[in-house]
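Exercise 3.2. Students should predict the tertiary structure of the chain below and write it as structure tokens, then compare their answer with the key that follows.

Predict this chain's 3D structure.
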Amino acid sequence: MKSAYLQTFVVSITMGSFSRAAENLNITQSAVSRRIQHLEEQYGYPLVDRSGPVLVPTEAGRIVLEKAHRMLEIEKDLIQDLRVLERRKGVGFGCSPAFGIAYLPEIMKAFMLSHSTVSEMNFSFELPDKVVEGLREGNYQAGVIEHFEDFDLNGFEIISLPDDDVVFVSSSRLKIDDGVTIDQLIAFDIYMRKEGCCSTKLLAYNMVNTGRNSSEFARTIVCDDLHLIISTVCEGSGITFVSRSLVDHHIRQGTLREHRLPSFQHSQHRTLIVKRTVPADLLLSDFIECVLAAFSPRTTPAP
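Answer key:
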């Protein structure tokens, strides 16, 4: 017997009709009817009372319904356990593009030096809420998020990392003074990533918190390529509000200048989140150690 037939029976009773079950399962209504009929023929009893406006289980149907819930739950646990075996090949990790660009090269170099035989690594650049969602769904075993708002991280192992510093930067060609004000900065074009990314959300929060609006900048140019944003700003075409770790080497070289406003919040939390599906997963533990080592005092972000 296929578990899909039991699932069809459960959904039909839950939804109260074959048509709504078909819509929910993305199959035809006739396919739903055939599956229910197959179960009834196999068990030798009618399972569904079709006489009323809403489908209800018969006495035999209630017995099958109870067991079906248990069997489907066992199958779900089985699939999750098999996925754990698959993930043991490597590590699944989610983070923001800014963290990935600034820190992942060094982290991966350190990790692969001692784990050259690892067969699979899964890295994804996502918004913080998508990283948390991916961890809950088992797509990742660990992730790093930058945030100034609270997240529901119950059920995860939480490790606080040094705060992410977010600053305005401009080309030295623009000759913007160190004591620049927001009134002076809004005269420039600002290059930002899409709405919802960490720095864009923090900029919007700061602008509102100081009685201003992000729309006050001369123009807002949205670009999802951080490398392109930074190179464009380096050429003197505008400014951006970005994680300092991304532009640290440009600032040290004098190509870019950083600007901080007294009324702005320039730091946000950076949190390492871990979901240990296997208590003694040494591979994951070693990867976490490499992440932590990237923030040791002797380390600077990769250019």
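Discussion points: Residues 195 and 201 are 7 Å apart (CA to CA). Residues 298-303 have pLDDT under 50 and may be disordered.
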